[in-house]
Amino acid sequence: MPLTAQQLDRSAGSVIGMAVGDALGSQYEFGPQHPDDFVPQFGVGYFGHDVGEWTDDTSMAMPILDALARGDSLGDPAVLGTIAGEWDAWAQTSRDVGAQTRAVLGAMRGVFTEEAARAASESHHRSTGRSGGNGSLMRTGPVALGYLADGREHALADAAGRIAQLTHWEQDNVDAVVIWTLMIRHAVRTGQLDLRVFRGEFGDATPRFARWAAIVDEAATRHPRDYQEQNGWVVRALQAALAAVAGATDFRDAMYRAIRGGGDTDTVAAIAGSLAGALFGASGIPDDWRLRIHGWPGYTADDLERRAVAAVGAANG
């Protein structure tokens, strides 16, 4: 599938947008809601991240992006095992690692395979009774770049769900990442937001589709502030991010809306940024924001753009 210049711009935007939202929202994490005249600024993060530095949300996406840029298949169990191992290496020095992610990585005891990760993830879910944190959704934006070609929706859904379950077993995590990556894919391909893009994967007349259609429809008419409570839960995080994007006039507006919602602002803004970037493109992200961002493993916005272009070229060329 040859990509147009606009599609390449939107591909890069989906990755840069994630990182920008993450870094911009970092200092407001766990904070209150803000009024519509509040203008978020880059600052030192809640966990001590530098000004413009992205947090765990984007860092966990980097091994996925790098794998795609190398031409690796996210359907390969060995590749997923390598990604889990890279997460573990990152977690050793990271300022912030989600409690559930850290617990699952620790339970793998140095055996980094997809099978070991899934076993640890399922065991954690069964022992705690839940595993619906938003850590699965925050990192999966780049997955869409590997499946832009015609007819690749089902393969995308499979890869996104498997990556989610490396640490987050609950079905809500699988459904949320499938919906989000399909929305990103469609936005990169068309420049449009499609609230029903997951119909083909969920089945038009199924309770699963009906439930998520209602969740998505509600969010598209609301503000992220309506989802501040429990936006660490993957369903509320998806709704907050979608509310930020669906009601926005441009990329900047989407990020402001996401952060004004309060709560888990870096994660909601990172999730929203991946979709907003896919809609408005890297060219729609303010230049001064692009210049500020940086993070593990020593990347800048230029590095993200190069890897995004390499990823779509390797997977869709």
TrEMBL record:
Q: Where is this region: Disordered?
A: 117-137
Co-factor(s):
Mg(2+)
Task: Please report the name of this protein according to its UniProt entry.
Answer: ADP-ribosylglycohydrolase
Residues annotated as binding Mg(2+) are T55, D56, D57, D264, D266, T267
Give the similarity note: Belongs to the ADP-ribosylglycohydrolase family.
Q: What does this protein's record comment on cofactor binding?
A: Binds 2 magnesium ions per subunit.
GO terms (molecular function) for this protein are: hydrolase activity; metal ion binding
Task: Give the originating organism.
Answer: Microbacterium kyungheense
Keywords attached to this Swiss-Prot or TrEMBL record, sorted alphabetically, are: Hydrolase, Magnesium, Metal-binding
